[in-house]
Amino acid sequence: MSAGHSAGLTVIVLAAGGGTRMKSKTMKVLHPIAGRTMIEHVLAAAREMEPDRIVAVVGHQREQVSEHIRELGPDVVLAVQDEQLGTGHAVRVAMEAVGDTAGTVVVAYGDTPLLEGESLRAFAAEHEAAERAVSVLSGVVDNPFGYGRVLRNHEGDVEAIVEEKDATPAEREVCEINSGILAFDAEFLRSALPRIGNDNAKGEYYLTDTIGIAREDGLTVGAHTIEDVMQTEGVNDRAQLARLGAELNRRIVTRWMHDGVTVMDPATTWIDADVELSPDVTILPGTQLLGTTVVAEDAVIGPDTTLKDCEVGAGARVVRTHGELAVIGGEATVGPWSYLRPGTNLGAGGKIGAFVETKNATIGDGAKVPHLSYVGDADIGEGTNIGAGTIFANYDGVAKHHTKIGRHARTASNNTFVAPVEIGDGAATGAGTVVRRDVPPGALAVSSGPQRNLEGWAQAKRAGTRQARAAEEALGAGRDGEQDVAES
Ligand code: UD1
Ligand code: CA
Fold first, then answer.
1. CA-CA distance, 475 to 486, in Å (whole number)?
2. Quick check: pTM over 0.70?
3. Which of 27, 207, 399, 475: CA 20 to 30 A from 337?
């Protein structure tokens, strides 16, 4: 009886292939899907098995791929496969990198973003319990074209895996395929790898030849069939990337609905793998919650909202908004048509309204920026109201400067705050004020001069235009009226 992974567990992730069908300067396994790269999904699934070590085999564009893997986890062993001579050769390179390991070795591919740790765990557990030399995670599919076929004898025992190009027409009829995920007894694997040849249609060292080798050695071989074959489906081109992306999203959205989130239109809702939602969050159509966005209970997001790496407090309402690296307090309201740029921090019960752009701005509890404004590099105290059409002029063409507005201030419409400047607690401004100097607490700042009316200006300077005629008519009507009164 094998006792769990007590003898050691190694997971090998193959990612040396070129992925030419992606037609991309970005290596295939680095393409994102649900906010993570493909290989990040696979490494996360591998980690869920709590292995003793993970080995990633890199080759094509190894610099790019290695750097990414090191960022994800410095503990992942990187093995370089200079030439892609086949899956058998790739695993040999991986085994050379880890040295003398015992126990179980699981091989997976870096381009299967739907793979779940639980499936790997169940597969490895069955492999170990059955004390097999090799186990293959197989799947039954309608169209097996391109896959290695699992060949069984009359007793139903797995005899071999034959690749598409090497298969006879009868073998091609088999619909049980090799998902690509295999589990090995480490000792057997080490003995089998040097015995794999490349005398086949592709001239490659096939890892799948280990099945036949184990049979020749009289060792136990078996297959574990996965119901959910999409988990092992690899991405080869952009069409598959989109199809698996949509499927992964459907799974994530469904999981959140089961966890108590209302999603009005799952088809137009996109939620990345690392997003966190609370029960009783409501998501309206056309909404994307991306990156590490976190939404607390009773918040309502959407319609038509994109939030990336944002934090939304309980009961907040976010309508038709684009936000990135922003924090929205509990019971706050945002939108419609708001643009929250990094460093926006809206307090509890605060408001960022229609056509407002914010950046690096802390807006206190209950403070409001309701209409048509730009708030950059600013602190706005609690309970303060910013008038419609206010511009925080933070940039002098060379450097950015900061504006501070105190608590419970009331600034009027169409103001410009020329930073650096400070407006005190309880201060006010008049309409159209350009604030260039600090305003003390409680003061009213006005900067526009007294209004002057230059009478008859339109008639004199715009003579003959509709504007001038309208003025003449208005004034004429008034004079006639006065004359009528005088004559009667
Ligand atoms: C492989 C299997 C096939 C299985 C299919 C599932 C073999 C011989 N065949 O076929 O039975 O049904 O996957 O998708 O194993 N790789 C390397 N180095 C190499 C070659 C490949 O790292 O030298 C990596 C690739 O990047 C890829 C994976 O291994 O992630 C599979 O390689 P690929 O050439 O796509 O194998 P298939 O022909 O699809
Ligand atoms: Ca493939």
1. 17
2. yes
3. 399
